[in-house]
## 1
Amino acid sequence: MPETVLKTVDLTKVYHTGAIEVLALSGVSFEAAMGDFVVILGPSGSGKSTFLNLVGGLDIATSGSAFYQDHDLTRAGEAELTRYRRDHVGFVFQFYNLIPSLTARENVRLVTEIVDHPMPAEEALALVGLEGRLDHFPAELSGGEQQRVAIARAIAKRPGLLLCDEPTGALDCATGVLVLEALQKVNRELSATTLVITHNVAIADMAGRVVMFANGKVASSRRNETQKPASQIRW
Ligand SMILES: Nc1ncnc2c1ncn2[C@@H]1O[C@H](COP(=O)(O)OP(=O)(O)OP(=O)(O)O)[C@@H](O)[C@H]1O
């Protein structure tokens, strides 16, 4: 059995906005092994991003537990969470958040300069098929290429955990598939445990496991017998 690296038990998050309480996550128990590729589906407001933010150390749970290896994320202080994010987690969001005045290579170097044992920026960009775009600025790249720079930036630290929130949300099918191919390659070559939130059910076919959220809970979880190559995904 592959080693479990991420485990949550009864993970719960309540947001307080003025007098209003929102139960965003309600007792989520989840496990992922090293190298798993998990797609998370579910209606808007079902708690997907909240879950990703908690396991990524961007937010703190109200109750329950979340462990990444021996990191106890529900008891960690701010400094420990910052180290956890820096050393172990790569984030990819819908909007690429690249620095417009820096080239692709320089955007990736922002990360490689602050972590131990990074891969060279050029290697990370080659892994996502952008070896020919090293010195291009974001404005000189297509949306899909910008997202692949964001993936290169996320993986250059060799993260154990790669968390993607709607990574193809802003892209058409042809461009989105190139981004998915990059994620699948990174997942396989780095054995990074990969969680992808999407509204696009077609993407579920490339997952090893598909988890459906509803009302802040895991409504269902299934394994795919085979994982479709990203190049064959269409929507
Ligand atoms: N910072 C916050 N403060 C208050 N409420 C929040 C906050 N973040 C999320 N919520 C609420 O928590 C619930 C879950 O939100 P979440 O963003 O996790 O859902 P989601 O499944 O990712 O939705 P979407 O698919 O639309 O991104 C929603 O009702 C949302 O309004």
Note: The chain has one domain: 35-59+86-232.
## 2
Amino acid sequence: MSRRLSEGRLLLATHNAGKAREVAALLAGHGIEVVTAGELGLPVPEETETSFIGNATLKARAAAKASGMVSLADDSGFSVAALDGAPGVYTADWAEKPDGTRDYAAAMAKVERLARHARDRRAWFSCALVLAWPDGHVESFLGEAHGEWVWPPRGAAGFGYDPMFVPSGESQTFAEMDPARKHAISHRAAAFRLLSAACLPD
Ligand SMILES: O=P(O)(O)OP(=O)(O)OP(=O)(O)OC[C@H]1O[C@@H](n2cnc3c(O)ncnc32)[C@H](O)[C@@H]1O
Ligand SMILES: [Mg+2]
């Protein structure tokens, strides 16, 4: 049996505003008020694991311990078949500049430079969502969205690598489509559906 959330406040253990916006939208209407790790000034934990679930667990546990609140972390990334799944868990690292800021145009250009000669254009996003309670209990969920990478990047909505990904059966990139459409078919939405069925109050 999974442990369910009770109504009340939930800490979103992320410093990424794009993710926080999407997770808050997915939680809307469930009677749960959200506050983010960024708003509380919590430290950014070092992501030392080699899987999405591992890193999401580490982030959720650190936030629950620091705040005493039930915490939800998201660890996600972009994978390219021709690159054997890279950048994968290192998706954020590929965007990181020496001064610690991120350059997603450069990160997307790196993916294109490494993969441009491959005929196989398949790519996918993964999202691990982990809930951690202050007593150490965790619940974990994994979602994926499959499609193809495209070049040049298109669209200004969304965040991160959205402009270079077209999900299967769609013609627009995640960054061109209405945010509501991305919320219906994304890796984050897939993980959230599992979380919702297992852990949200009825
Ligand atoms: O760790 P937190 O604080 O949550 O924020 P982060 O941005 O560092 O998040 P991750 O460590 O999980 O790295 C995820 C990377 O994958 C990218 N990413 C994740 N979900 C995405 C989405 O829906 N669309 C585009 N890019 C996404 C995101 O921009 C990051 O570069
Ligand atoms: Mg991170």
Note: The mean pLDDT is 96.
## 3
Amino acid sequence: MQICRSVADCRAAIAALRAKGKTIGMVPTMGFLHDGHMSLVETAQTHTDAVAVSIFVNPSQFGETADLDAYPRDENRDLEMLENAGVAVVFIPEVETMYPSGDETIVETTRMANMLHGLVRPGHFRGVTTVVARLFNIVQPDVAVFGEKDYQQLQVIKRMVADLHMPLTIIGAPTVREADGLAMSSRNVRLTPEDRTAALILSQSLTAAEATATGATVADLHKVIADTVATEPRATLKGLDIVEAETLNTIDGPLHGPTAIMISVAFGDILLIDQRVVTP
Ligand SMILES: Nc1ncnc2c1ncn2[C@@H]1O[C@H](COP(=O)(O)OP(=O)(O)OP(=O)(O)O)[C@@H](O)[C@H]1O
Ligand SMILES: CC(C)(CO)[C@@H](O)C(=O)[O-]
Ligand code: BAL
């Protein structure tokens, strides 16, 4: 496994694989890896010959520096997991490497970035597309894999790739969960034991909504989720969006096709997200 910290080293490692005729898959991450990330690596490996993983805690997608500062990191453990998984290249840049001129050049999906979860975290998706576009330009993968857990992020990136005619395919991979249903997230380790138990309310509220989806309106599902989350006093519902699955367009009246339910719930200063696509 090649560990690269500069753009030149990363490009050289990828070029060496290309010279052997290998196709390249990519999994962008912010590190502190868990089984959710490793499932994305496996998906990338089934589609391509060699996989590159980036580890970069991207400052431009964090609103509050407290959230950025508290973001968990463990580079040695991450590298061991990636080596064991047979990853070919790991790219671990510094902030100066990714942002040589700060935020002079940005990439933004102007509509999709500034709706739904983008309103809960202003500027977040602009930071995501800006860094992902840079990562794609450095690695130039054939395929990149993103988790469905970050549902809006996946749709935003697909839109960016289509609109900028980027020559790669984006694949979405299902959410990997703990045994009790909590979506795996690097942020879970910051939860107190009480909040960790309370966090089950995310998946439980989605299950309650799914059970009533057929024949339901958006307003009905809003109520089911809000009422379920309200039964957990430690949880604060921050965002709840029920939209058409691919376009993220709003739905009037009853659900009429694949529908994405996206929720964000805060436990103190820790914001957790989950989603489910239901087809009535
Ligand atoms: N439980 C999961 N199942 C599948 N994919 C996941 C899961 N958690 C994260 N991912 C995906 O891994 C990629 C990197 O995500 P990231 O490094 O932000 O991890 P994370 O655990 O989501 O961290 P956090 O939510 O705390 O920011 C993204 O494409 C994300 O959607
Ligand atoms: C895609 C990503 C690595 C960009 O920083 C990040 O948003 C994430 O980990 O989901
Ligand atoms: N997984 C999305 C990255 C973030 O929360 O900033």
Note: The CA atoms of residues 188 and 196 lie 7 Å apart.
